[in-house]
Amino acid sequence: MENSVMKEEVVIVGGGIAGLATALALKRVGVKSLVLERSSELRVTGVAIALFSNAWIALESLGVAHKLTSLYKPYERAKVINVANGVTQETSFQKPGEESLEIGPRTIHRRALLEALLEELPTETVRFSSKLRSIEKTKTPQENDLFGVVIQLEDGTTIHTKVLIGCDGVHSLVAKWLGLKDVVNSGRCAVRGLGVFPEGHGLNHEVQNFVDKGSRFGIIPITDADVYWFMSYQSIPSKDEEMPKEDPRAIQKTILESASGFPQLVKDVIQRSDMQNISWEPLLFRYPWDLIFGRVSDGTVTVAGDAMHPMTPDLGQGGGSALEDAVILGRHIGNSYLRNGGMISQEDLEVEIQMYVKERRWRTTGLIITSYLSGWVQQSGGGGIGSSLRGVGWLMKFLRDTVFYKIMYPRLGGFLRYDCGKLPTGSA
Length: 428
Known about the structure:
Blueprint: E1 5-13, H1 17-28, E2 34-36, E3 48-51, H2 53-62, H3 65-69, E4 77-82, E5 88-92, E6 106-109, H4 110-118, E7 126-127, E8 132-137, E9 149-153, E10 158-166, H5 173-178, E11 184-196, E12 207-212, E13 215-221, E14 226-234, H6 237-242, H7 248-258, H8 264-271, E15 279-285, H9 288-293, E16 297-298, E17 301-303, H10 318-339, H11 346-378, H12 393-408, H13 413-416
Parallel strand pairs: 1-2, 1-10, 2-7, 4-12, 10-17
Antiparallel strand pairs: 3-6, 4-5, 8-9, 9-10, 11-14, 11-15, 12-13, 13-14, 16-17
Helix pairs in contact: 1-4, 1-10, 2-10, 10-11
């Protein structure tokens, strides 16, 4: 079989949330794209995802919010329970004067989000089992030939494209090609799962966090039958190496032993876990200065989602920020496309992509920093940047219980209510 050669105006590497959302944003502005997904089918990594107001604003711009808001209820409040003394702090997600939480925070099944995005795309948009091997830019492109980026796939296929967008996750090959540095370990790990209660769990529809020295356990109802749970804790390399990462039952047993001091509710949810949805992983992030000073684009090559700004999950902004990226990148490419009469202008598009990078660089840097500090403070320190303060128990307790939960936590609304704007409309 001869190796094939293709030409595509826009190629997106990665068919996760960022990749599918970017493809949909481009479709809305009239630009056709091809998504290359290395998996053989829809890639669902993780059982659930938290989406705050900023994510729902982005999904409304993409035209799919209504498909999900009808299935999942918003949360009105979150509780933080100190395991050591039983003290409970409560935070409302509703701002004073608001009448409803129509775009309020919800936790949804990750597959439902991916399918909602995929359903809106033409069937030929996503090419599965497509593994990226190399990227290069043509040094001497022919006159009027704008297909200046050449992609090689592992099956021998060559694709010439005008625009390349890397949405291929924390270990992105596109980010590596651009020169962005590898992600780093935050010094913490997380176990995630789905508690299944066919008869109904009977919990209030609210977020509950149980905090103890060095660890935090979250219980978040998704539906009347499904409860998303997670446990994040300070990494201990010797114990992390012993974690049976590929054996969900062994992970469940280990976490149950670790949660011996937590309330019975926590243990019940862990015991009712669906074995197919238990996972363990270290929490990774990109140093903020790498994003500030690193090369995030090169001509018409750029990145979005975790490929650009991997962050710890403590603010629940990984998915939301990826959806923001998609709308903003779609807006900039769409503006250029419409301004040039339905054509992709290389010079004009390079400027628009630079504007996209400028717009996203500082917003996502702030999210990386705030997410890291949020997790570090809530777990009384834990490796990485702040490890020098570990052991100062009284100070960390003060930072967590007074500074973070009473002062900072209620004021995070600016991050969570961010408006990424609308996609351009018009006829090319």
